[in-house]
Protein backbone atom coordinates (compact mmCIF):
# COMPACT_ATOMS: atom_id res chain seq x y z
CA UNK A 1 0.00 0.00 0.00
CA UNK A 2 1.23 3.47 -0.93
CA UNK A 3 -0.31 6.86 -0.16
CA UNK A 4 0.75 10.12 -1.77
CA UNK A 5 -0.02 13.74 -0.94
CA UNK A 6 1.33 16.93 -2.50
CA UNK A 7 1.91 19.36 0.36
CA UNK A 8 3.14 22.19 -1.88
CA UNK A 9 3.81 22.18 -5.62
CA UNK A 10 4.67 25.21 -7.73
CA UNK A 11 7.56 27.21 -9.13
CA UNK A 12 7.85 28.95 -5.74
CA UNK A 13 8.03 25.91 -3.44
CA UNK A 14 7.77 22.13 -3.50
CA UNK A 15 7.31 19.47 -0.84
CA UNK A 16 5.69 16.08 -1.42
CA UNK A 17 4.73 13.30 0.99
CA UNK A 18 4.66 9.53 0.41
CA UNK A 19 3.66 6.83 2.87
CA UNK A 20 3.51 3.07 3.20
CA UNK A 21 2.13 1.08 6.11
CA UNK A 22 5.35 1.61 8.05
CA UNK A 23 7.30 4.46 6.47
CA UNK A 24 6.76 8.19 5.87
CA UNK A 25 9.02 10.23 3.58
CA UNK A 26 9.18 13.70 2.08
CA UNK A 27 10.37 14.54 -1.41
CA UNK A 28 12.05 17.98 -1.26
CA UNK A 29 11.59 20.72 1.32
CA UNK A 30 11.28 23.85 -0.77
CA UNK A 31 9.16 25.91 1.62
CA UNK A 32 9.71 27.00 5.21
CA UNK A 33 9.80 24.52 8.08
CA UNK A 34 6.70 26.17 9.54
CA UNK A 35 4.78 25.63 6.30
CA UNK A 36 5.80 21.97 6.16
CA UNK A 37 4.76 21.50 9.79
CA UNK A 38 1.39 23.12 9.10
CA UNK A 39 0.76 20.99 6.02
CA UNK A 40 1.71 17.78 7.84
CA UNK A 41 -0.64 18.75 10.67
CA UNK A 42 -3.46 19.10 8.14
CA UNK A 43 -2.96 15.49 7.08
CA UNK A 44 -2.38 14.25 10.66
CA UNK A 45 1.28 13.37 10.22
CA UNK A 46 3.80 14.10 12.99
CA UNK A 47 7.01 15.67 11.61
CA UNK A 48 9.15 13.39 13.75
CA UNK A 49 7.58 10.37 12.04
CA UNK A 50 9.33 11.25 8.77
CA UNK A 51 11.99 8.63 8.01
CA UNK A 52 13.84 10.57 5.32
CA UNK A 53 13.81 13.45 2.85
CA UNK A 54 14.63 12.76 -0.80
CA UNK A 55 16.17 15.66 -2.72
CA UNK A 56 15.55 16.02 -6.46
CA UNK A 57 18.00 18.90 -6.99
CA UNK A 58 19.50 21.95 -5.33
CA UNK A 59 17.30 24.82 -6.55
CA UNK A 60 15.85 26.88 -3.71
CA UNK A 61 12.22 25.99 -4.45
CA UNK A 62 13.17 22.40 -3.57
CA UNK A 63 15.63 22.79 -0.66
CA UNK A 64 14.69 26.01 1.16
CA UNK A 65 14.40 24.39 4.60
CA UNK A 66 16.06 21.01 3.98
CA UNK A 67 18.73 21.52 6.66
CA UNK A 68 16.48 23.30 9.13
CA UNK A 69 13.85 20.56 9.01
CA UNK A 70 16.46 17.78 9.17
CA UNK A 71 18.15 19.34 12.20
CA UNK A 72 14.92 20.09 14.08
CA UNK A 73 13.53 16.55 13.75
CA UNK A 74 16.76 14.54 13.27
CA UNK A 75 15.74 13.32 9.81
CA UNK A 76 18.14 11.82 7.23
CA UNK A 77 18.52 13.67 3.93
CA UNK A 78 19.12 11.61 0.76
CA UNK A 79 20.98 13.19 -2.18
CA UNK A 80 23.42 12.21 -4.89
CA UNK A 81 26.91 13.58 -4.39
CA UNK A 82 26.69 16.29 -7.06
CA UNK A 83 23.48 17.67 -5.58
CA UNK A 84 24.99 17.54 -2.08
CA UNK A 85 27.99 19.56 -3.23
CA UNK A 86 25.69 22.12 -4.86
CA UNK A 87 23.41 22.63 -1.84
CA UNK A 88 23.47 26.05 -0.20
CA UNK A 89 26.02 26.13 2.60
CA UNK A 90 23.40 27.59 4.94
CA UNK A 91 21.22 24.50 4.67
CA UNK A 92 23.96 21.90 4.15
CA UNK A 93 25.77 22.92 7.33
CA UNK A 94 22.68 22.16 9.41
CA UNK A 95 22.61 18.50 8.30
CA UNK A 96 24.69 16.28 10.57
CA UNK A 97 27.12 13.81 9.02
CA UNK A 98 24.96 10.98 10.36
CA UNK A 99 21.92 12.36 8.57
CA UNK A 100 23.57 12.83 5.19
CA UNK A 101 22.82 9.79 3.02
CA UNK A 102 24.12 9.42 -0.53
CA UNK A 103 22.56 7.53 -3.41
CA UNK A 104 23.57 6.80 -6.99
CA UNK A 105 21.38 7.46 -10.00
CA UNK A 106 19.81 4.24 -11.36
CA UNK A 107 20.64 2.29 -8.18
CA UNK A 108 17.83 1.30 -5.83
CA UNK A 109 18.01 1.98 -2.10
CA UNK A 110 15.64 1.50 0.81
CA UNK A 111 14.05 3.68 3.45
CA UNK A 112 12.07 1.46 5.80
CA UNK A 113 9.81 -0.74 3.68
CA UNK A 114 10.02 1.59 0.66
CA UNK A 115 12.33 0.83 -2.26
CA UNK A 116 13.42 3.93 -4.18
CA UNK A 117 14.93 4.22 -7.64
CA UNK A 118 16.35 7.62 -8.67
CA UNK A 119 16.58 8.40 -12.39
CA UNK A 120 18.14 11.27 -14.32
CA UNK A 121 16.10 14.21 -15.59
CA UNK A 122 17.13 17.07 -17.93
CA UNK A 123 17.25 20.28 -15.91
CA UNK A 124 19.81 23.04 -15.31
CA UNK A 125 21.09 21.67 -12.02
CA UNK A 126 24.11 19.64 -10.86
CA UNK A 127 22.62 16.14 -11.17
CA UNK A 128 18.82 16.40 -10.97
CA UNK A 129 16.63 13.34 -10.64
CA UNK A 130 13.14 11.99 -10.35
CA UNK A 131 12.12 9.05 -8.19
CA UNK A 132 10.15 5.85 -8.55
CA UNK A 133 8.92 4.55 -5.20
CA UNK A 134 7.98 0.90 -4.67
CA UNK A 135 6.21 -0.96 -1.91
CA UNK A 136 5.53 -4.58 -2.76
CA UNK A 137 3.86 -4.62 -6.18
CA UNK A 138 2.82 -0.95 -5.96
CA UNK A 139 4.74 1.79 -7.76
CA UNK A 140 4.39 5.57 -7.86
CA UNK A 141 6.73 8.06 -9.52
CA UNK A 142 7.73 11.72 -9.18
CA UNK A 143 8.94 13.63 -12.26
CA UNK A 144 9.19 17.42 -12.25
CA UNK A 145 11.64 20.05 -13.53
CA UNK A 146 11.94 18.35 -16.89
CA UNK A 147 13.31 20.34 -19.81
CA UNK A 148 12.07 17.64 -22.17
CA UNK A 149 10.86 14.07 -22.06
CA UNK A 150 13.34 11.29 -22.79
CA UNK A 151 13.05 7.58 -23.51
CA UNK A 152 14.92 6.86 -20.28
CA UNK A 153 12.42 8.84 -18.21
CA UNK A 154 9.52 7.11 -19.95
CA UNK A 155 11.06 3.71 -19.17
CA UNK A 156 11.36 4.66 -15.51
CA UNK A 157 7.76 5.90 -15.39
CA UNK A 158 6.30 2.81 -17.05
CA UNK A 159 4.14 0.55 -14.88
CA UNK A 160 3.50 3.30 -12.34
CA UNK A 161 -0.04 3.35 -10.99
CA UNK A 162 0.31 7.03 -10.09
CA UNK A 163 2.62 9.85 -11.20
CA UNK A 164 3.15 13.39 -9.99
CA UNK A 165 4.13 14.94 -13.33
CA UNK A 166 5.27 18.46 -14.11
CA UNK A 167 2.93 20.59 -16.20
CA UNK A 168 4.72 23.87 -15.73
CA UNK A 169 3.62 26.24 -18.48
CA UNK A 170 1.29 26.86 -21.40
CA UNK A 171 3.43 27.89 -24.42
CA UNK A 172 1.13 30.71 -25.56
CA UNK A 173 0.87 32.16 -22.05
CA UNK A 174 4.65 32.03 -21.64
CA UNK A 175 5.10 33.66 -25.05
CA UNK A 176 3.15 36.76 -24.02
CA UNK A 177 4.17 36.89 -20.35
CA UNK A 178 6.18 39.74 -18.84
CA UNK A 179 9.20 37.44 -18.36
CA UNK A 180 12.42 38.59 -20.07
CA UNK A 181 13.39 36.74 -23.22
CA UNK A 182 16.33 34.94 -21.58
CA UNK A 183 14.10 33.51 -18.85
CA UNK A 184 11.47 32.43 -21.38
CA UNK A 185 14.13 30.54 -23.33
CA UNK A 186 15.35 28.89 -20.14
CA UNK A 187 11.85 27.70 -19.26
CA UNK A 188 11.03 26.24 -22.68
CA UNK A 189 14.60 25.10 -23.34
CA UNK A 190 15.89 21.52 -23.19
CA UNK A 191 16.94 21.88 -19.54
CA UNK A 192 13.99 23.94 -18.34
CA UNK A 193 10.45 22.80 -17.65
CA UNK A 194 7.73 20.61 -19.16
CA UNK A 195 4.77 22.23 -20.90
CA UNK A 196 1.11 21.24 -20.59
CA UNK A 197 1.25 19.82 -24.11
CA UNK A 198 4.21 17.57 -23.36
CA UNK A 199 2.63 16.45 -20.09
CA UNK A 200 -0.40 15.31 -22.10
CA UNK A 201 1.81 13.49 -24.58
CA UNK A 202 3.72 11.79 -21.77
CA UNK A 203 0.56 10.59 -20.05
CA UNK A 204 -0.75 9.26 -23.36
CA UNK A 205 2.43 7.20 -23.76
CA UNK A 206 2.08 5.77 -20.25
CA UNK A 207 -1.63 4.88 -20.07
CA UNK A 208 -1.03 1.56 -21.90
CA UNK A 209 1.62 0.60 -19.30
CA UNK A 210 -0.86 0.63 -16.41
CA UNK A 211 -1.02 4.30 -15.40
CA UNK A 212 -4.31 4.98 -13.60
CA UNK A 213 -3.88 8.35 -11.92
CA UNK A 214 -1.85 11.54 -12.51
CA UNK A 215 -1.47 14.72 -10.52
CA UNK A 216 -0.11 17.66 -12.52
CA UNK A 217 2.41 19.62 -10.48
CA UNK A 218 4.98 22.40 -10.42
CA UNK A 219 2.65 24.79 -12.26
CA UNK A 220 3.99 28.26 -12.91
CA UNK A 221 1.96 30.97 -11.23
CA UNK A 222 2.67 33.40 -14.08
CA UNK A 223 2.61 31.12 -17.12
CA UNK A 224 -0.12 28.61 -16.32
CA UNK A 225 -3.45 28.12 -14.58
CA UNK A 226 -4.81 24.92 -13.00
CA UNK A 227 -7.90 24.90 -15.22
CA UNK A 228 -5.82 25.50 -18.35
CA UNK A 229 -3.31 22.78 -17.45
CA UNK A 230 -6.12 20.29 -16.91
CA UNK A 231 -7.88 21.28 -20.15
CA UNK A 232 -4.77 21.19 -22.34
CA UNK A 233 -3.54 17.88 -20.93
CA UNK A 234 -6.93 16.18 -21.21
CA UNK A 235 -7.41 17.46 -24.76
CA UNK A 236 -4.05 16.00 -25.73
CA UNK A 237 -4.97 12.64 -24.15
CA UNK A 238 -8.25 12.56 -26.10
CA UNK A 239 -6.45 13.53 -29.31
CA UNK A 240 -4.26 10.46 -28.77
CA UNK A 241 -7.36 8.24 -28.87
CA UNK A 242 -7.94 7.75 -25.15
CA UNK A 243 -11.19 8.62 -23.45
CA UNK A 244 -11.39 11.04 -20.52
CA UNK A 245 -12.21 8.01 -18.38
CA UNK A 246 -8.85 6.43 -19.25
CA UNK A 247 -7.09 8.39 -16.49
CA UNK A 248 -7.88 10.09 -13.20
CA UNK A 249 -6.39 13.54 -13.67
CA UNK A 250 -5.89 16.10 -10.93
CA UNK A 251 -3.87 19.26 -10.36
CA UNK A 252 -1.75 19.85 -7.26
CA UNK A 253 -2.52 22.99 -5.29
CA UNK A 254 0.29 25.49 -4.97
CA UNK A 255 -0.14 26.24 -1.29
CA UNK A 256 -2.17 23.50 0.37
CA UNK A 257 -2.17 19.71 0.70
CA UNK A 258 -3.86 17.73 -2.04
CA UNK A 259 -6.31 14.89 -1.37
CA UNK A 260 -4.55 11.61 -0.63
CA UNK A 261 -3.88 9.33 -3.58
CA UNK A 262 -4.11 5.72 -2.46
CA UNK A 263 -2.36 2.99 -4.48
CA UNK A 264 -3.02 -0.60 -3.46
Write the topology of this structure.
Blueprint lengths: L1 E9 L2 E7 L4 E4 L5 H10 L7 E5 L5 H4 L2 H8 L3 E3 L1 H6 L2 H4 L7 E3 L6 E3 L2 E7 L8 E7 L2 E6 L7 H7 L4 E5 L4 H5 L5 H7 L8 H11 L6 E5 L8 H14 L8 E4 L9 E3 L1
Parallel strand pairs: 3-4, 4-5, 5-6, 10-11, 11-12, 12-13
Antiparallel strand pairs: 1-2, 1-14, 2-3, 7-8, 8-9, 9-10
Tell me about this structure.
This protein is of the alpha/beta class and 264 residues long. It has a single domain, classed as Ribonuclease Z/Hydroxyacylglutathione hydrolase-like (Metallo-beta-lactamase, Chain A). It contains ten helices and 14 strands. A hairpin with a 2-residue loop joins strand 9 and strand 10. The mean pLDDT is 97.
Short description:
The protein has 264 residues and is an alpha/beta fold.
Number of helices: 10
User: Which structural class do the helices and strands define?
Assistant: alpha/beta
Compute the separation of the termini in Å.
5 Å
CATH topology: Metallo-beta-lactamase, Chain A
Order of helices and strands: EEEHEHHEHHEEEEEHEHHHEHEE
Strands, total number: 14
* Biggest sheet record: 7 strands, mixed
CATH homologous superfamily - what is it? Ribonuclease Z/Hydroxyacylglutathione hydrolase-like
User: How much is the radius of gyration in Å?
Assistant: 17 Å
Residue ranges: pLDDT <50 for 5 or more in a row? none
Q: How many domains is the backbone divided into?
A: 1
Architecture, CATH level 2? 4-Layer Sandwich
How large a portion of the residues is in β-strands, by DSSP E?
25-35%
Q: What is the topology, as strand order, of the major beta sheet?
A: 6-5-4-3-2-1-14
- Helical coverage, percent range: 25-40%
Name the shape in a single word.
globular
What is the level 1 CATH name? Answer: Alpha Beta
Mean residue pLDDT: 97
